[in-house]
Amino acid sequence: MQISLPPRIREVLVDDQDYVETLGVAKKLAQRGCITVVRGFSSNLELLDVLAVLGPIFEPVALPPDKSIAPTTVVSEAGFVASSINWHYDQSFAHEPPTWSALYCDHPGTASLPSLFADGAGLVSLLSDGFRDMLRRLMATHEAYYSLEAAGSSSTIRASHPVIQLVEGKVEALFVSPATVERFMDWSLQDSFPVLERLFAMMNWPEITVAHYWQEGDLLLWPNRRYLHRALPLDAGPEPRQLRRVVGRWAA
Fold first, then answer.
1. What per-residue confidence (pLDDT) applies to 15?
2. Domain architecture of the chain: domains with CATH
3. Where are the beta strands (DSSP E) in 22-132?
4. Are 34 and 117 within 8 A, CB to CB?
5. What is d(CA 78, CA 63) in angstroms, rounded to the nearest whole number?
6. 194 partner at 20 to 30 Å CA-CA among 146, 151, 176, 248?
């Protein structure tokens, strides 16, 4: 497998006269397997309306109790960041997970905290042929790491997906994460643990990771089934970083 390592974040210049054209460029790059940042995106625009050019917006199936189930999720991080610090994909516990994710930065906060990304395709490319062939035959169950308590239910949302999937860039990528997967289907926890621990450790390898340092007006777009992401468990300072997340599926 020929994968460009380490992954790069591609920058797109804003066309103030035509945001649709700007997002069209970003979309093409993301569909080729790139993480893309549009710098200086206007916060005066209605985010959902603008991002609809990428494809249908996905409404989350589960979110933490302190957040409402809505197409736009507001992420406010101040003080010690303790949430979303595990590698994860957005809404991977849905039966049909979103294929793209976008984060918009209203304010970067007082501390320069990056968001980290790990390329699941780059990880698969570093595995031996035998290990990769074994993973191709496996399914994994993704469970939401929060319940629907805010909606009056304590049920857990879960869905099963192939461990290796064909993703943007026409490459195979790993689709398991430490935030949502504890075992492979038809495997015990004891048998799953050493294999998953190996894969989870590889997600931190510098060969497949990249960091994005936020600036106000950044719009970051990436293929959700290819790239895992996480926050850093660091002190974000007194002034919160304000992000808005929207996820969706590519237009046909």
1. 67
2. 9-248 (3.60.130.10)
3. 35-38, 57-58, 72-77, 100-107, 114-119
4. no
5. 19
6. 146
